[in-house]
Design a protein that fits this description.
alpha/beta, Rossmann fold, 2 domains, 5-stranded parallel sheet, 3-stranded antiparallel sheet
């Protein structure tokens, strides 16, 4: 009996200590909600997640659905004058980027005050002013270099088919003379593969919002419970992903500067491996690029294909935590660029590969936080990187009719 009492006493003590700890954690998170790690919010109950993310990250409340006509997944674009927050970084990164009167990354007034636009840029977050001022993004700088009115229709998280939908919805009405589609090396292949899977019915018709099973009182109200239970879900999903896709360590060093310490953009490695293994064909780009050429002929603009490499390729050779990642990325970059160059030539599209010009610029000075072309944290173009892209494109476009 004494042993049983002792066991019950120990259990009661553990439960009491656990309860006190949980209440303490809940109080801390209520007072300082930013103490909750940003990555953890992905696994929170959706309504609670949206509440905690407001002001820290864009949420669905900051976007509107844009209709599309190609059978792809619905596109969300920012509402007019939305302020897009960013995690602090170095190299002059800004922590807030305001959108313009139609929700894109430009200084306000350009779209509304111009009946025509000489140059329109389409692309993802490597075209959108990610953590830079809209006037520092390469489309705006390109317009200044050419002495033409330019407009940035870049939208993060999209792929080539989405670029064309956004162009058709907002760009064609402004009768552009030149349209630059900026393909990003790291994840546009993924976006094309996902688009084709969705259109063919292989992907769910309605994407889940992470609310499955998160209906109880604790899920709906407790920050501490969401963090604890969400962490268990993360560990389960991460282990499953590693079984299916292999281990990914996308951290690397450029000189003395550590890059991607937060392990962002994991898919860049996953899809690079699939591509070099022949599991995904580079030919997925053929459909949108031929449609791009067709739109140019039909609407009287010059379509131009630009190719932005990843930070690891521009600064190669870099010191990867996992050396195999570097070898895969190098092969992936060479194969993808070669395919797009050939496809562009067949389609009659001028192709501007930014890889070698950016590499030459990167070699001109030792990499320090003051002169990097890519942010070490979010691995997107810095203001200096955007300026370099604009200069390279301006020289290439100057040779076109």
């Amino acid at each position: 009996m004494t042993t049983r009492r002792k066991a019950l006493g120990v259990l009661f003590g553990l439960l009491t200590s656990g309860g006190i700890f949980a209440l303490g954690a809940e109080a801390v998170f209520r007072i300082v909600p930013r103490a909750i790690p940003a990555k953890a919010l992905v696994y929170f109950e959706p309504n609670l997640r949206a509440k905690l993310a407001q002001g820290r990250f864009p949420t669905r409340a900051d976007t509107v659905l844009m209709p599309r006509d190609d059978g792809g997944e619905p596109i969300r674009i920012f509402k007019p004058f939305t302020v897009r927050p960013y995690v602090p970084d170095v190299c002059g990164a800004v922590e807030q980027v305001p959108t313009d009167e139609i929700g894109f990354g430009n200084p306000p007034g350009i779209y509304a005050s111009n009946a025509t636009l000489a140059v329109v840029a389409i692309g993802d977050s490597y075209t959108f002013p990610t953590a830079v001022h809209p006037s520092d993004a390469w489309p705006h700088r390109l317009g200044a270099a050419l002495d033409r009115t330019a407009y940035n229709l870049g939208r993060g998280g999209q792929g080539p088919c989405e670029y064309l939908q956004i162009l058709k919805r907002f760009g064609l009405a402004k009768a552009p003379r030149t349209v630059v589609m900026n393909v990003y090396e790291g994840n546009d292949l993924r976006d094309m593969a996902e688009y084709l899977a969705y259109r063919s019915g292989q992907a769910p018709l309605v994407a889940g919002d992470g609310s499955e099973g998160k209906t109880g009182f604790l899920w709906r109200h407790s920050y501490a419970w969401n963090l604890a239970a969400g962490s268990v879900i993360y560990l389960r999903d991460h282990a499953r992903a590693e079984r299916l896709e292999g281990h990914v360590d996308y951290r690397f060093q450029v000189g003395a500067v550590p890059f991607n310490a937060g392990q962002g953009n994991r898919d860049e490695i996953v899809y690079a491996r699939k591509a070099v293994a022949g599991e995904i064909a580079y030919a997925v780009f053929a459909e949108p690029l031929r449609e791009f050429q067709r739109l140019g002929a039909a609407h009287g603009f010059q379509p131009v294909l630009a190719y932005t490499p990843s930070a690891a390729i521009v600064y190669a050779p870099v010191d990867f935590r996992d050396p195999e990642v570097g070898r895969v990325l190098d092969r992936f970059s060479r194969e993808q660029r070669a395919y797009l160059r050939e496809l562009a030539q067949e389609s009659g599209l001028p192709f501007v590969d930014l890889t070698e010009p950016l590499r030459q610029l990167a070699r001109q000075a030792a990499p320090t936080p003051e002169n990097l072309l890519y942010f070490p944290g979010n691995i997107h173009l810095t203001a200096r990187g955007h300026a370099a892209v604009a200069e390279i494109l301006a020289a290439a476009l100057a040779d076109l009719p």
